[in-house]
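The protein record filed below.
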Amino acid sequence: MLTKNITVELTNSELKPYKLSLLQKVYVGIKLIIDFVLALIGVMVCLVPSFIIAIAIKLDSKGPVFFKHKRIGKNGKEFTFLKFRSMSINAKPEVSARDYVDVDSYVTKIGSFLRKTSLDELPQLLLVLTGKMSLVGYRPSLKSEPELNDEREKLTVTQIRPGITGWAQVNGRDILAADQKKKAHYDYYYLTHLSLYLDIKILLLTVLKVLKRSDIKDGKIDNNIDNHQST
């Protein structure tokens, strides 16, 4: 059930490197095929809307249509991350939007709409097609997020591919980003419970979150956040 609450508050003694089971390894292989097929369908469906978005971005502000940046993915390796550009060219690419105190002065008009509707993430379907990302996983991180990266490495989260959405995204998204260690623990929960059922659940919850525009917050986030539980 989508409404069943599961707490992911784990003690340090419960956190340890995890080895995928045989069934999970088989599913990872099947998931690669599922991702490719669904991403291909997604690219074809979103082709016209993406073209319109590209024109809107060019008309709205100076700069490229796409925002490209190095992110950390599977096995800790860097890859070129892709999004529709939602901030002005004056924004620093190595600085996350949540680290800006005056983020509104950098987000473009069309960019604000794209971020609120998550349409800026559409180009990542191309990364799913090339096998760099999955539809569901953990969000690829920046080099400038050492706490998150260290925790993920310790818990072997990066043995699987990063995703467009994930367990952390449907349990806090931008709000959860204020607590990097807790975010990594949600990623660890996903790793240890990796299954078709969980992926379907996350995709359904993602649609609901996007429609409700839940947990979207740009700029500085207070570290004193509420404890999030799954929904």
The CA atoms of residues 168 and 182 lie 9 Å apart.
